[in-house]
């Protein structure tokens, strides 16, 4: 089946405004969801699910959160990992302190706590922009990790702030196998991705993009700048917070505040830069790139180059190739993988003709 | 109440009255003691040499700048301290001298953004995109399509505005302002940098807006031919002071205006 939209006429605005106006896209996304939900659990090995797919989905969610803030609302942030930490630790506290707390509610609570902290650290954005704002969010990054380590209350007085996630149980069903955890994460991520897409195609999203592109004009049109920016911080942090809770509960099991350090923030930032700033799909592509590439390089180096290179080089080769690829991508396509995908689709619509 | 003026427009009551406006930035006097009014349905031009304070005047009207002295009465109500977004909800829309479109968004999204003060759904409803949020979105889309038809830009509705030529960008910006269904439309040099045909198109749109929607228009323009042709009354500013006010013919023959534009023999 060729990728063509010829013959697909829109007769209503509703048809024109759906998320995937082209039929082939709808079929493709349906297939991906079916494969992810039904085929993957049957064929993927435990290692794949636990070490690759679950972290990929969780990072996609965190990248989605940062993309809402940075890509759509144009506010640069280096604190995503800290907001993840707030989500993880808040969910842990909700679970540990409230008897019989439903775990999904605890995740939402984690997200809401992160949103509250996000609003607090988003306040400087009302005064400062760009690099200066990035530095202000850097303060959030360091302060939050420090506070979680310093005050035992946050980790319910465990040693050096390490928390061990409680068991996940929903309606009596225990999520203890990798496959069940994978399906739980997949559901949450799919629902939240859909919600994000709906927001960015509605007036909330247009207000964010208006503030990003031209804030003076946005204000004159009637957009309340303060409200719009803080909402972006809140929703972005909510996404990061839920991602953080999942990171602790569905992926690692045991985390310490230091696990949510600046490195992780940068990793999420790289994901949206490589995947595509201001694109929902880009968040997923970027997360896939950052999660999969090191594993791919590891396998490649171990299988083919172990004998050829001294270990001191081969162990660092991965980092070198990784860095090189990031620079390559930024030069070739600064708008990320999502833009490459877009260009590819536009070419495909005309293929095999050049015009 | 309404009378026909020489251009055949029904000019109504005064809807915007500016009284003794003075605006200073530190020691710089941008506007000094300026008074004029705008009547309903009329096209009011503000002209003057560069740096005369024309854009500052528009910024005062839509609440970006707050004058230190003077009163602003809009629709019979004296304005208290306000933010620009409040001017938008009161029905004042504007375009900018340098195009201020949202570059990353499509033409359609840009014009949809113009209707933002009329959209009532919260972000949660929009995240779910069911029922009310979807209905609202579609209802506004229909209104926006009317604006798109009116400005004859159907063929570019899905194009990112950054890719459009200058003349079309100006037209999209007008569309974004129109989408808000303003009662008062401020146009800051709508024809700057255009060629003759683009200027004719833009003039036609401005006159049509005024005629069909009854929108009151305040415009700044440097092309005297255009100003004298389409406006009902003209205010002339120079160095932040008002030096002339009246019909195009009055202004054309005003000695002070001629001196400001052409210089005086010493």
Automatic annotation (TrEMBL), chain A:
Coiled coil: none annotated. Signal peptide: none annotated. InterPro entries: ABC_transp_permease (IPR001851), LivM-like (IPR043428). It comes from Azospira oryzae. The keyword Ribonucleoprotein does not apply. It is a multi-pass membrane protein. The chain crosses the membrane at residues 27-45, 51-69, 76-95, 101-123, 130-149, 179-196, 230-248, 268-301, 313-332. The keyword DNA-binding does not apply. It is found in: Cell membrane. Keywords: Cell membrane, Membrane, Transmembrane, Transmembrane helix. Pfam families: BPD_transp_2 (PF02653). This is Amino acid/amide ABC transporter membrane protein 2 (HAAT family). It comes from the Bacteria.
From TrEMBL, chain B:
Pfam families: ABC_tran, BCA_ABC_TP_C. InterPro entries: AAA+_ATPase, ABC_AA/LPS_Transport, ABC_transporter-like_ATP-bd, BCA_ABC_TP_C, P-loop_NTPase. GO terms for molecular function: ATP binding. Gene3D superfamilies: P-loop containing nucleotide triphosphate hydrolases. It comes from the Bacteria. Keywords: ATP-binding, Cell membrane, Membrane, Nucleotide-binding, Transport. Residues 16-264 form the ABC transporter domain. This is Amino acid/amide ABC transporter ATP-binding protein 1 (HAAT family). The lineage of its organism: Bacteria, Pseudomonadati, Pseudomonadota, Betaproteobacteria, Rhodocyclales.
């Amino acid at each position: 089946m060729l990728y063509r939209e010829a013959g697909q006429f829109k007769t209503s605005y509703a048809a024109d405004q759906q998320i995937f106006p082209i039929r082939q896209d709808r079929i493709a996304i349906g297939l991906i969801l079916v494969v992810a939900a039904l085929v993957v659990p049957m064929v993927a090995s435990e290692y794949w699910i636990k070490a690759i797919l679950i972290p990929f989905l969780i990072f996609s969610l965190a990248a989605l959160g940062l993309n809402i803030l940075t890509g759509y609302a144009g506010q640069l942030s280096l604190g995503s990992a800290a907001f993840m930490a707030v989500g993880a630790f808040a969910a842990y506290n909700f679970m540990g302190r409230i008897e019989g707390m439903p775990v999904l509610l605890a995740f939402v609570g984690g997200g809401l706590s992160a949103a509250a902290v996000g609003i607090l650290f988003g306040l400087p954005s009302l005064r400062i922009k760009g690099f200066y704002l990035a530095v202000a969010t850097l303060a959030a990054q360091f302060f939050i990790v420090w506070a979680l380590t310093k005050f035992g209350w946050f980790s319910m007085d465990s040693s050096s702030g390490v928390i061990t996630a409680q068991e996940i149980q929903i309606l009596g069903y225990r999520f203890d196998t990798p496959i069940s955890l994978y399906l739980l994460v997949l559901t949450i991520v799919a629902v939240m991705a859909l919600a994000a897409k709906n927001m960015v195609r509605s007036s909330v999203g247009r207000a964010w993009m208006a503030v990003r592109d031209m804030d003076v004009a946005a204000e004159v049109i009637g957009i309340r700048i303060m409200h719009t920016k803080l909402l972006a911080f809140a929703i972005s942090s909510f996404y990061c917070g839920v991602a953080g809770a999942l990171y602790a509960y569905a992926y690692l099991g045991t985390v310490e505040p230091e696990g949510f350090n600046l490195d992780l923030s940068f990793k999420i930032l790289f994901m949206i830069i490589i995947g595509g700033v201001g694109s929902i799909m880009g968040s997923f592509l970027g997360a896939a790139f950052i999660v999969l590439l090191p594993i791919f390089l590891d396998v490649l180096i171990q299988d083919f180059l172990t004998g050829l290179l001294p270990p001191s080089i081969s162990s660092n080769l991965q980092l070198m190739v990784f860095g090189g690829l990031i620079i390559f991508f930024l030069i070739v396509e600064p708008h990320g993988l999502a833009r490459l995908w877009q260009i590819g689709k536009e070419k495909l619509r005309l293929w095999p003709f050049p015009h | 109440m309404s009378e026909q003026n020489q251009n055949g427009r029904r000019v109504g009551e005064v809807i915007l009255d500016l009284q003794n406006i003075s605006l200073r930035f530190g020691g710089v006097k941008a506007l000094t003691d300026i008074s004029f009014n705008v009547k309903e349905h009329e096209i009011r031009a503000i002209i003057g040499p560069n740096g005369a304070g024309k854009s500052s005047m528009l910024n005062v009207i839509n609440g970006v700048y707050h004058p230190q002295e003077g009163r602003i009465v809009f629709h019979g109500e004296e304005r208290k301290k306000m933010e620009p977004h409040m001017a938008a909800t009161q029905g004042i829309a504007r375009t900018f001298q340098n195009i201020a479109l949202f570059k990353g968004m499509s033409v359609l999204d840009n014009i949809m953004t113009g209707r933002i003060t009329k959209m009532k759904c919260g972000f949660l409803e929009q995240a779910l995109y069911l029922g009310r949020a979807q209905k609202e979105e579609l209802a506004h889309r229909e209104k926006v399509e009317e604006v798109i038809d009116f400005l004859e830009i159907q063929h570019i509705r899905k194009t990112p505005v950054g890719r459009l030529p200058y003349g079309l960008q100006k037209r999209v910006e007008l569309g974004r302002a129109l989408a808000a269904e303003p009662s008062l439309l401020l146009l800051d040099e709508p024809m700057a940098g255009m060629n003759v045909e683009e200027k004719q198109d833009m003039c036609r749109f401005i006159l049509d807006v005024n005629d069909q929607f009854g929108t009151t228009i305040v415009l700044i323009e440097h092309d005297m031919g255009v100003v004298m042709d389409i406006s009902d009354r003209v205010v002339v500013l120079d160095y932040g002071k008002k030096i002339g006010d009246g019909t195009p013919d009055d202004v054309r023959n005003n000695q002070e205006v001629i001196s400001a534009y052409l210089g005086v023999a010493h």
